[in-house]
Amino acid sequence: MKPDTIYFFGTCLIDLIYPQAGVSAVQLLQREGVKVIYPQAQTCCGQPAWNSGYRDEARKVARAQIKLFPKDLPIVIPSGSCAGMMKTHYPELFKGEADEAEALQVANRVYEFTEFLVDVLQVDLKDFGEPVAVAVHTSCSARREMGVADKIEQLLGQLSKVEVKEQAYKAECCGFGGTFAVKQPEISAAMVADKILHLRATGATQLVSQDCGCLLNISGAFAYQANHEGKTAPKAQHIAEFLWDRTQAAEEMKS
Amino acid sequence: MSTEFRIDVQKALGKTEVRAHFRKAMDTLMTNRRNQFPDDAALQALRHQAQAIRANALSKLPELLEQLEAKLTAKGVQVHWAETTDEANQIVLSIMQKHQAKSIIKGKSMVSEEMGLNHFLEAQGIEALESDLGEFIIQLDGETPSHIIMPAIHKSKEQISQLFHDKFPDIPYTENVDELTASARRILRDKFYTASVGLSGVNFAVAETGTLCLVENEGNGRMSTTVPPVHIAVTGIEKVVEKLSDIPPLLSILPRSATGQPITTYFNMISGPRQADEKDGPTEVHLVLLDNGRSNIYSDPELLATLRCIRCGACINHCPVYVRIGGHSYGTVYPGPIGTILEPQKQGLKVHGELIQASSLCGACGEVCPVRIPIPNIINRLRYDSVRKDTEHTPTFDAGTKRKPLEAAIWQGWSWSASHPSLYNFGGTVATQLRGLVPNKVGAWTNVRTAPQLADKTLHQQLKALGVDHE
């Protein structure tokens, strides 16, 4: 059964750098007849500190978040990484704490955005965009923590003019890894260099992902090579923004 | 600021030929493994079973070790306990001295690498010769293994050809792998006949029956354990399993995860020295059980999972970091993801603490681990241990020693602001703070990428303007 109201957790990366992805995700949800609640006091899921070993600091931030979702409604997050943090790591982070039950309550209601569109809302998308060749980068957290690796392809499969091009080493990490990219920049750079090599080889002119961390890394590397070496760079977008752009045209044509 | 580890990494990343070689080798291993498990449901069931077997054994480790010792002793195997690698080396040496042995021939054993046994014995005037082909090759070149099951994987066929020709000038230069293998076999055959002591590792030690199981492909393990009159097996205390019936599932998943073979060419089950009515086999068998930090790991319920490892190397084969930097960059006996969690626990965070940062936490290791060790979770736990204040609550050596005042202050500041969003504009503050987190390393991000651009209006602002409800 489709829920009529959901909470939306936008993630700090989208808030600061990719707000259009968050706006598009909210608009897509609203178009499906779902009322969206965006608690304005939300900040960050706490993952950067959690993955850096600063658990007390992470918990303090996470504790502020779990209080924002009091009603028994799904919490939709446009990121496999942040969704994975809340769903799989909040139970560890709050183990033995006074508010453990509250944290588990939140964890159990978390959905990654594409998972929610496909499995819960069962959206039916109409494509009114131009023909385009698209490469998909699925984040490691969406793939392995959330187990939603196939959702973007399922959504793109509904779009008649989108051709999905599969890159070599598709399931391999792009090298972002949060603080990994700054603590071990050489290894991270080697990983993203290979990733964009394989992506470019597909000939796709568009790249989509469900995670803005990966996009920041991959599109940053593409842009650098475009600026310094004159190489081609596909347009990189969060899947929500890509879907909204192509299917919103259909809405306009209907009206 | 570049650390020693990062300098080694940069050197390794610069060796494009070796990197291409690693990539090809790891691709083959990953494909081989995938082909062995066409049915994912069956694979997951087997992983759960293998995990349960290993977890069960660890849950009764002290009892099972005593049972193993009793069973082996009853069959005439001499069991030795070593808390440290020094003790283990001394035990091997005293056995050698008792037999006035001047040489030892070795089957492949990572525990002997852990002990630094070859160098130790050589310093005592004893020749220690590796008989596993990969180990033989790297020993010729004075190197250490770069992979736990394929120790010479970093070497090309051409390098090995040249190495053989340099070390054995009477062998004509050839790049024919069969001829090279035949030469090694001929050289080693003599050594097997003349060495008075053979050494091996142990893959599984069965407590119920007192059986030492050894998995191998070249037959050198069987030769090392049967031809010389004395056989010494060395192993970590975690390798014990409860029952003989635990072996088939483990034997089913180990080679398939490791090399993608349905089964290894040889599987040895060693039950004791030669009996009066037997015509061959060693007259003396010893087992050295090494702790070397394992009891410490054992004492923590979360870290304990580290000891489930059956040393297949699948985590290494699937690691996007290992495939790029190779095994030697880690500077440890065990490289890759398993080394990343094992070595800091064994040797302390001061020495190997940086390894836990050399992971993007992509999870590929945990996904393929045949005994379902949650490697990324353990990395996360060790990162916590490395900076935690309540260090008495963890057995991890050197806990808290990676806590730096500046970094801790930055995370505290971040934590305060991200938990008090209403006091000021959250976005701008966080962005500024995270930029301050690693000021000397932002340059590294922009060495290969453009700098992130902050949006004009945050999502908070845009959704508010669009009238999206906030409660």
From TrEMBL, chain A:
**Boundaries of each Cysteine-rich domain copy?**
7-87, 134-218
Recorded superkingdom? Bacteria
Single GO molecular-function term?
Answer: oxidoreductase activity
Quote the protein name from its UniProt record.
Answer: L-lactate dehydrogenase complex protein LldE
Alphabetical list of Pfam families matching this protein: CCG (PF02754)
Choose one Gene Ontology CC annotation of this protein and give it.
cytosol
Which organism is this entry from?
Thiothrix eikelboomii
InterPro entries per the record? Cys_rich_dom
TrEMBL record, chain B:
Query: In what residue span(s) does the 4Fe-4S ferredoxin-type domain sit?
Result: 299-328
| GO terms assigned for molecular function | 4 iron, 4 sulfur cluster binding; metal ion binding
A single BP term in Gene Ontology: lactate metabolic process
What range does the record give for the signal peptide?
A: none
A Pfam family in this protein? LUD_dom
Top-rank taxon: Bacteria
Instruction: Name the keywords, alphabetized.
Output: 4Fe-4S, Electron transport, Iron, Iron-sulfur, Metal-binding, Repeat, Transport
Note the NCBIfam families from the entry. LutB/LldF family L-lactate oxidation iron-sulfur protein
Q: What is this protein called?
A: L-lactate dehydrogenase complex protein LldF
